[in-house]
Design goal:
D-Maltodextrin-Binding Protein, domain 2; alpha/beta; single chain; about 400 residues; about 35% helix; 2 domains; 3-stranded antiparallel sheet; 5-stranded mixed sheet
Length: about 400
């Protein structure tokens, strides 16, 4: 079975995480702000996580925690990882009680918090940097956000457009002049010139277009064929993939708070493995996606590119999963300033203080350090040569 083979690889690996010994069931202490004892509650052993898209290397750390047995090491019998093909809004699934934790971009959840009055808490900021790009043809002259006015700007919608408007607001540009054109999760809209600038993630759609053959040359398109605006280089950059928990449950249910810490320990080990073994991590995720009931079909080379680029967004030198206050404040400021093409705001008031907490992540990191897990370090990118179709 593939699972046992992977576990065998772990034992033989020189990877830091693999060399460590863990208790078979490491009952972590509960939330530092909650006075509990392990005898006061029955630890949760079955939990669920809602993703915001289909299986791919964007979520490698969670799948690796499952495949490598890290969830088991933290006392979980079952961790259900629930994909979404855009038909499920992660934070809504969490609010409804359908799942225990959810992955979602921060601005999308901020909009939900204000619109609905619910309380959710970002307990781990996995992506430390924005990976969103706006890609246009090199001869179209769209080289910066300042060139967006009057253009057909592609976006997937579902809240992915807010970085566009936050960046425009920072430059005092007229958002109502932009024609937001809904694009699918490919670069066809740009290739067909249905948009002037298409939305892309560094780890996905940017590679997709570089995996296409230019009919004029017979070779793959090259980066110099396009202009790229990176939101990470603007004040419109917003925090993206974060792990969200139910605020009220964290405060009132010690078993849930305890499960949150154990869950974060397991996924930290998963992401450490992805950092130190990107090729194998990409291979594992490709296997999972290839056998999934629903998946966005991409090749193994594309998954490797994605793993490489995702690692760059996660391992920036900051403590894994800890919310950077300055980045949070920038995200909130952008959300407050952003006005869309219809003149509507994303949010109009500051989010509650409970919207993020580093306590659970910091406890998870402290416990891992006590157990001998080296949780610091940066990622050394690998070279990935793209191929047609990512195959």
């Amino acid at each position: 079975m593939r699972h046992s083979i992977r576990r065998g690889m772990i034992v033989a690996s020189t990877l830091t995480v693999a060399a460590l010994t863990f208790a078979a069931c490491s009952g972590s202490e509960a939330d530092p702000g909650t006075d509990t004892d392990s005898s006061d509650f029955e630890p949760l052993t079955d939990i669920s996580l809602q993703l915001q898209w289909l299986p791919q290397a964007q979520f490698a750390g969670y799948y690796l925690a499952q495949e490598m047995g890290y969830f088991e090491e933290e006392g979980f019998d079952t961790v259900e990882i629930v994909p979404s093909g855009g038909d499920i809004v992660p934070q809504d699934a969490l609010v409804a009680g359908d799942v225990d934790f959810a992955i979602a971009w921060v601005p999308k959840v901020l909009g939900t918090l204000e619109a609905s009055g619910v309380e959710l808490t970002d307990i781990a900021q996995v992506f430390q940097e924005s990976g969103t790009l706006q890609v246009s043809w090199a001869d179209d002259g769209i080289t910066s956000v300042a060139d967006f006015e009057g253009q057909r700007i592609g976006s997937w919608g579902f809240g992915n457009e807010w970085e566009i408007f936050a960046a425009m607001a920072e430059d005092d540009l007229d958002a109502t002049s932009v024609s937001i054109t809904t694009q699918d999760f490919s670069m066809n809209a740009l290739l067909d010139r249905d948009v002037d600038a298409a939305q892309a993630m560094t780890y996905n759609e940017w590679a997709q277009i570089l995996e296409v053959v230019d009919p004029e040359t017979g070779e793959l398109y090259q980066p110099e064929d396009f202009n790229v605006v990176s939101y990470a280089d603007t004040q419109g950059a917003m925090l993206q993939d974060a792990i969200w928990a139910d605020t009220e449950r964290l405060e009132s249910d010690p078993a849930y708070a305890d499960a949150a810490v154990r869950f974060l320990k397991a996924i930290t080990k998963g992401w450490l493995y992805a950092r130190d073994n990107p090729e194998d991590a990409a291979d594992i995720v490709y296997d999972i996606a290839s056998n999934a009931e629903a998946a966005f079909s991409v090749g193994p080379v594309h998954q490797l590119w994605q793993m490489n680029e995702v690692n760059k967004l996660i391992w920036t030198g900051a403590d894994f999963g800890v919310v950077d206050a300055a980045a949070w404040d920038q995200t909130v400021a952008g959300a407050l300033a952003a006005v869309n093409q219809d003149g509507l705001n994303l949010i109009t008031t500051e989010p509650p203080e409970t919207a993020y907490s580093n306590e659970y992540m910091e406890q998870a990191l402290a416990e891992l350090a006590d157990e001998g897990v080296e949780v610091t370090g940066e990622y050394t990118p690998i070279e990935v040569e793209l191929t047609e179709g990512g195959m």
